Amino acid sequence: MTRLSNAFSKPHPALVCFVTAGDGDTAANLDALVEGGADVIELGMPFTDPMADGPAIQAANIRSLNAGTTTADVLRIARKFRERHPEVPLVLMGYANPMIRRGPDWFANAAKEAGVDGVICVDIPPEEDDALGPQLRDAGISPIRLATPTTDAKRLPQVLEGSSGFLYYVAVAGITGMQQAAIESIEANVSRIKRSTDIPVAVGFGVRTPEQAAEIAEVADGVVVGSALVELVGKHGADAPAKLSELTAGLAKAVHSAAKGAA
Amino acid sequence: MASTANTFRNQPDERGHFGDYGGRYVAETLMPLVLDLEREYRKAQADPEFRREFDDLLEHYVGRPSPLYHAERLTEALGGAQVWFKRDELNHTGAHKINNCIGQILLAIRMGKTRIIAETGAGQHGVATATVCARFGLPCVIYMGAEDVRRQSPNVFRMKLLGAEIVPVTSGRGTLKDAMNEGLRDWVANVEDTFYIIGTAAGPHPYPEMVRDFQSIIGKEARAQMLDRIGRLPDLAVACIGGGSNALGLFHPFLDDREVKLLGVEAAGHGLDGDEHAASLLGGFPGVLHGNKTYLLQDEDGQITEGHSISAGLDYPGIGPEHAWLKDTGRVEYTAVTDEEALEAFQLLCRTEGIIPALEPSHAIAAVAKRAKEMPKDSVILANLCGRGDKDIFTVAEKLGVEM
């Protein structure tokens, strides 16, 4: 069992929480997410050109880069998190260029050494898997792929091939943090995906409140929340951990009380 | 030069790769769309009616073929090789950009798309896109960096006259790359009805190939015109490079004419020794941005850095992936020209030939001036005059210290 598979084997759906590395006191922010009840942590790697992100996460990227965050800093944040929380799965999420800048082998090994369990690279689709996928798998890190409303039945096997940990279902065709998709569409798509794979399916994009999270948790293995948390970091700065912990606790309660396996 | 290559004209491969470059580095949401675009483009390529319509619009709407012009007074002033210009600045809308926009909007219509989006830097691609949208009656949204909206107000007004909606982009630093990010964000949220007309030979496959194909009319015409006028091919062909669409358009039909040397000219801004330039090939490193792998201006962590050039059209931190491949194979030589050299070349062409060039091809002219002097008088240089300079007179006046 890996840390990721453990997180998705709990008697309840998993809450996956995202914050951007180097935005505010990231160690304290991450601890607050764990304390609030997050089952999986996604740590965003800042990038100058976050094409798939909406205003909230774009702003977090800029705050982080303006504060001088480097790739070494991101890996250090991950390593220290791993020391403090030996059992909580940690996933790096970001864009290809910062990941492959020093070579995919370098990145996969550095991430492994920092205790990272999975990597979500937004702009490496299965067609370009060679750019990073083999190196991650060799290092024992799960390449976590995204499926979207535009991923049709014909493409789905290709998306699933070579991915592990969990599948991130992007609920809306759009950028992060904007509108939420209709629950009927999420339910139909998640059950379609689950007929093709045993990998757990977590749903994200546009999930902001415990009510939305509860609804999705009824039909999926996990719920991802990002922009709503990142906005708290932007708004409260040094005081963000208490706010993060509070929102996470509300989300965790909602997600954890959903019936497991309803999908 | 890669000795194994029998031809330089068979790129990309079926995955859209030019050697190590190119590809389809896009979010999953867009992946089915770029695959669909490729399928539709292949069908259009095989359809004689598509070609006929494209050629007809180029002739009667754009004004092609553009002339091939022997610049005798410039040649005399330089005292070396004979300089010939491909006059793509005489196209409707004043630049080469329209060639590609005609091709892409015909494809959009074939695909049943009802809404067009585009990014623009200096505004030339925005104007060309707004033009074809007006011509075909499609709504058009142009993303333009807020900083560029300020710098290029005449083009902003032109686009508005043509009925386009201009969205000033304030994310990032408000320049061309941020406008392209915003274009991609729009596309990902409007996957059903929207066609993204990318302005240069970059982006996810099939854009680099498709834009090159539409722009290759430049080189095809020029090659035939050279043979017709002087009975031989040029010794050297020169074009400026931002994303690289006019250069590929000129070069591609000459790639297998090994006797023709090819020279791409990047923007050296204030000089390649500092950070203030836009020379991705000469001053950058391979990486992934905007859907393709190519040379990028970036720091050691892979963060994209801002280009600088006097010419807003060259001010982009990436370059089309085919240029990255052509650089590595050695088939095309790349050089760079500073703001100051481009400004001198701009004035030289105004005074010797009565042609006001855009600041983009002024970079090519500066490189021509250097090379012509080193070449014998019976040798021939062909350069692409890819845009006219009306849009740049304010920038030039400011640099020359003239109040307007």
From TrEMBL, chain A:
Cited InterPro entries: Aldolase_TIM (IPR013785), RibuloseP-bd_barrel (IPR011060), Trp_synthase_alpha_AS (IPR018204), Trp_synthase_suA (IPR002028)
Gene Ontology molecular function: any one: tryptophan synthase activity
Keywords: Amino-acid biosynthesis, Aromatic amino acid biosynthesis, Lyase, Tryptophan biosynthesis
Pathway participation: Amino-acid biosynthesis; L-tryptophan biosynthesis; L-tryptophan from chorismate: step 5/5
Family, similarity comment: Belongs to the TrpA family.
Subunit structure as annotated in this protein's UniProt entry: Tetramer of two alpha and two beta chains.
Name of the protein in question: Tryptophan synthase alpha chain
Organism: Qipengyuania nanhaisediminis
TrEMBL record, chain B:
Keywords per UniProt: Amino-acid biosynthesis, Aromatic amino acid biosynthesis, Lyase, Pyridoxal phosphate, Tryptophan biosynthesis
Cofactor or coenzyme needed: pyridoxal 5'-phosphate
Pfam family, one: PALP
InterPro entries: Trp_synth_b_CS (IPR006653), Trp_synth_beta (IPR006654), Trp_synth_beta/beta-like (IPR023026), TrpB-like_PALP (IPR001926), TrpB-like_PALP_sf (IPR036052)
Domain (Tryptophan synthase beta chain-like PALP): residue spans on this chain: 63-387
GO molecular function, one term: tryptophan synthase activity
Catalytic activity: (1S,2R)-1-C-(indol-3-yl)glycerol 3-phosphate + L-serine = D-glyceraldehyde 3-phosphate + L-tryptophan + H2O
Superkingdom of the source species: Bacteria
Metal-binding is among the record's keywords: no
E.C. designation(s): 4.2.1.20
GO cellular component: cytoplasm
Modified residues (N6-(pyridoxal phosphate)lysine): 97
Known pathway: Amino-acid biosynthesis; L-tryptophan biosynthesis; L-tryptophan from chorismate: step 5/5
Summary of the function given for this chain in its UniProt record: The beta subunit is responsible for the synthesis of L-tryptophan from indole and L-serine.
Quaternary structure annotation from Swiss-Prot or TrEMBL: Tetramer of two alpha and two beta chains.
Family per record: Belongs to the TrpB family.
Protein's name in the database: Tryptophan synthase beta chain
Species: Qipengyuania nanhaisediminis
